[in-house]
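Late entry, written up from scratch paper. The run itself happened at the end of the previous shift, but nothing got recorded in the book at the time, so transcribing now.
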Amino acid sequence: MDTIRDSFRKGFNSAPIMAVVGIAVGIILGLLYGWVIAPVDFVDGDITQLRDDLKTDYLRMVIDSYAINQDLKLAEERYDRLGEEASSFLSEIEFNPSGQLVSDIDTFRAVMEVTSLADELEEIAPEEKPGNNILKWALLITIVLAGALVIRYFLGKRSPGRSAPKNAVGMAQDITAKIDPTDFGDREESPPMHQFVTTYVLGDNLFDDSFSIESAAGEFLGECGVGISEAIGVGEPKRVTAFEVWLFDQNDIKTVTKVLMSGHAFYDEAIRSELEKKGEPVLADPGVEFVLATNNLRIIGRVMDMGYGEGPLPEESFFDRLSIELSVWPDDGASESEPFDFDEF
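Output as recorded:
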């Protein structure tokens, strides 16, 4: 028994074993102190320590804040916190707006460029007392604005592999250009004297398109158009849940209106009853047709293309895009009281 005890004692007293035991005890005590007794608190970090995706999110918030409060000094201070990488993150947002208004992003870029140029010129030119050298300051402002325009021009020339994003209006124009007008020949209809197509894309908060109706001789007969009738939810961009489609007859001094509704608006009694005050409700659906008629003009409206947006709102409650065709004829006797019968075709 004594021999065994001596063997254990000699083993524990050996240098390698004692070293291992010491390291293990040290690690345990260090972890206990560092994580339980006195954990490390990270303070006074800055934006440059964030991940790249978080830096981009931060800059998006800076842009939104400036668009709302127009505080240039605060926006410049926040922008400068990103350091030398600020411009590259702004370029990334320009290439991928991800729901932000392109106009807000472009305005922010232009303001930051002008401010940067002004700071550089201020370092070169000695500071003057207010009221002195008016001509010099006028020249300085001119140089700054000209420089900003030049920078915007060259920034607009993207590399061939990457094209700049289009805003909602530009996207809508592209969609409209690809839509073929309806052929009414198989309906035993005379060709319409006008066929107009207009497209709304989410983000175009000011969408309101109108068209002049003229006779073959150039006589003004009236106007027609499509505009936003009702939005749903809060925040930007507007989530449009209904559009007004209207026809004005110059000779009848009359405007007729129909309200093209999303599925949610059409089947929600409260929303529908409110919108019915503006015009007869029509459920928007791909290919659906409706008629607007006065004593002298008749329009067949047709939904050429549409899609609903996605987000924290009821399903089918707002439009991501909507293309409408308005085909115009001189009235042949149809009226709002005698709706056009599409089944006969």
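The first strand starts at residue 194 and ends at 201.
(Scratch paper discarded after transcription.)
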